[in-house]
């Protein structure tokens, strides 16, 4: 429940055919593996907590703190009711930044790997280098998860997936954050073994 469905698909079933078959069990909830959801309010609180964390990274929490309670509710209700216009009217503010800053303060991202026990990797990473160059997805991976990137003369062992696609490593991280972040405003990046077929 606490991972977006697209992320779960990238991690667990990206090589399977669509539509994705999901089995729902109504008994024997795996308490050790999944976060139990006691109510709809708990889901809303978790979602808003993630949005606030992402805004703290991007804008020092300035945007989310300037919003009124009704804006927070509109953001949640737009997502909950699958009303993109209602959601985007508020979320747009969280995706903006002053032109003179060339991007967010830090990129809110999480990297997930199927080959490790660690749930995800999350570190501070700026979208622009100290010399003013835009950082790319490849730059992020080389610094945070170097095993995910194939050496220049080596064989590619991993696929980097976001929303079911494999973006080029040369893609600017700021652009990815603006256009491929999940509704919680995080860029969820999956690193999976390269398919053999």
From TrEMBL:
Name the Gene Ontology biological process terms.
autophagy of mitochondrion; cellular response to nitrogen starvation; piecemeal microautophagy of the nucleus; vacuole organization
| Cell location | Cytoplasm; Preautophagosomal structure membrane
Residue stretches making up the Autophagy protein ATG5 alpha-helical bundle region domain? 41-96
- The main place the protein resides is cytoplasm
Tell me which UniProt keywords the record has, alphabetically: Autophagy, Cytoplasm, Isopeptide bond, Membrane, Signal, Ubl conjugation
Task: Give start-end of the signal peptide.
Answer: 1-17
Tell me where on the tree of life, at the top rank, the source sits: Eukaryota
For this chain, the family text in UniProt reads:
Belongs to the ATG5 family.
Protein name as annotated: Autophagy protein 5
Where does this protein come from, organism-wise? Answer: Rhinolophus ferrumequinum
Please name the gene that encodes this protein.
ATG5
């Amino acid at each position: 429940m606490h991972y977006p469905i697209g992320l779960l698909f990238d991690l667990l079933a990206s090589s399977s055919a669509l539509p994705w078959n999901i089995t729902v069990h109504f008994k024997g909830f795996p308490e050790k593996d999944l976060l139990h959801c006691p109510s709809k309010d708990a889901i809303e609180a978790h979602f808003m907590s993630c949005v606030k964390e992402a805004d703290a990274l991007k804008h020092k929490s300035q945007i989310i703190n300037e919003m009124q309670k009704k804006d927070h509710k509109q953001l949640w209700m737009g997502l909950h009711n699958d009303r993109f216009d209602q959601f985007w009217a508020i979320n747009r503010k969280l995706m903006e930044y002053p032109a003179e800053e060339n991007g967010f303060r830090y990129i809110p991202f999480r990297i997930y790997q199927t080959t490790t026990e660690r749930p995800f990797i999350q570190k501070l990473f700026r979208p622009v280098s100290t010399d003013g160059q835009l950082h790319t997805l490849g730059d992020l991976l080389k610094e945070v998860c170097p095993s995910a990137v194939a050496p220049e003369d080596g064989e590619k062992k991993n696929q980097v997936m976001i929303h079911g696609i494999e973006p080029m490593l040369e893609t600017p991280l700021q652009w990815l954050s603006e256009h491929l972040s999940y509704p919680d405003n995080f860029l969820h990046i999956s690193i999976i073994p390269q398919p053999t077929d």
